[in-house]
Prior knowledge:
With about 350 residues, this protein is α/β, with parallel strands linked by helices. About 40% of the residues lie in helices and about 15% in strands. It is built from twelve helices and twelve strands. Strands 3-2-1-4-5-6-10 form a seven-stranded parallel beta sheet, with helices on both faces. The longest helix is centred in the N-terminal third of the chain and has 20 residues. Bound molecules: nicotinamide-adenine-dinucleotide and 2'deoxy-thymidine-5'-diphospho-alpha-D-glucose (DAU). The site of 2'deoxy-thymidine-5'-diphospho-alpha-D-glucose (DAU) has 20 residues, from α3, α6 and β8. 2'deoxy-thymidine-5'-diphospho-alpha-D-glucose (DAU) binds next to α3, α6 and β8.
Amino acid sequence: MRLLVTGGAGFIGSAFIRLVLGTNPSVSILNLDKLTYAGNLENLECVAGNPRYRFVRGDICDTALVNRVLEEWPVDAIVHFAAESHVDRSILSPEPVFETNLRGTFTLLEAARRRRVQRFLHVSTDEVYGSIPEPYAADESYPLRPASPYSASKAGSDLLALSYFTTYRLPVVVTRASNNYGPYQFPEKLIPLMISNALEGKPLPVYGDGMNVRDWLYVDDHCRAILAALEKGREGEVYNIGGNCSLPNIEVVRKILKATGRGEDLIRFVTDRPGHDRRYALSSEKIMRETGWSPQVAFENGIQQTIAWYQENAGWVARVKSGEYQNYYALNYGSREEIR
Length: 340
Ligand code: NAD
Ligand code: DAU
């Protein structure tokens, strides 16, 4: 089987490539990635010499390039991770989000339709459902109420992908996962940011009252679910992928401080994120029933493994936190006031 993986140099895409090449000897992968600030070939050093892996640097919005790649290296399936994936950046600067997440997805869908690709797996997010009131958990028929430019772009690209199934019978499957964490995550997202700041003894900026709830999913569990949906998911269907681990942010932050041996004096409650969704909660019953997948990594184990990885990979962290990251950090946090 030949796969085109987009965004394979990012956090989840690289975990997917490492997992698939390590466990499926009959799969070859071409990774198409633009290498934005979030793309990092260091994440794929362990597969770089693998004859079943190849890399092309390029933009998924580039129609000619996407068509050339698929012509020169025909694939059975596309697993589409590439995205601008960070909510705060989408608020600060929405344009790249709409380019990559909407135009990029459109470009890939068109190329897949013309080349009659046998499966198009569109990797999406629980954020498309917006905030879910207690005590509900969203199933796949829950209304879409995205609140940020990021989640609106993902909702739009989900609907576009599904329209290609309805209209052109392109064999599309959409997955919607909850918050991922694990090794190699760029330290702009809550868990890696809090771990790296705690390890460096820097303040931990918690938005609002810290009581926003997220459902945490270990990245390898997510990748196993994507593989299950790729192999066993039904065409034209959406599959939620949750970690079955709902926690308020402040509890996650306290666990990280405890595990890194730091005190709670590092916590700073700061100006909230605009449009901040209060609670995400997913029902993953459908993917569990149809594919047999279930999450394997308990949060207590996953967070320990993740912290250990960041401790052992201080060089990786220092490299990704140099340069552009410093500008982003100043822009996103510089004007946030401490609120209590
Ligand atoms: P990431 O930001 O770590 O990686 C994104 C990758 O896409 C990078 O390698 C980047 O270089 C590449 N990319 C960006 N724009 C591109 C373009 N125009 N052309 C080609 N490559 C481009 O993201 P992630 O956290 O690994 O997320 C991957 C996917 O999973 C995204 O679609 C995201 O919406 C979805 N998702 C993420 C989470 C999460 O918690 N991180 C949860 C659910 C769904
Ligand atoms: O739910 C899935 C989504 O999870 C993915 O689709 C996105 O790609 C991914 O970025 C993530 O979005 P969130 O906005 O939920 O993740 P983030 O790590 O940015 O924030 C998690 C929670 O922590 C959220 O309630 C905001 C809060 N937060 C975040 C940061 C970066 C803070 O309190 N302080 C911070 O500095």
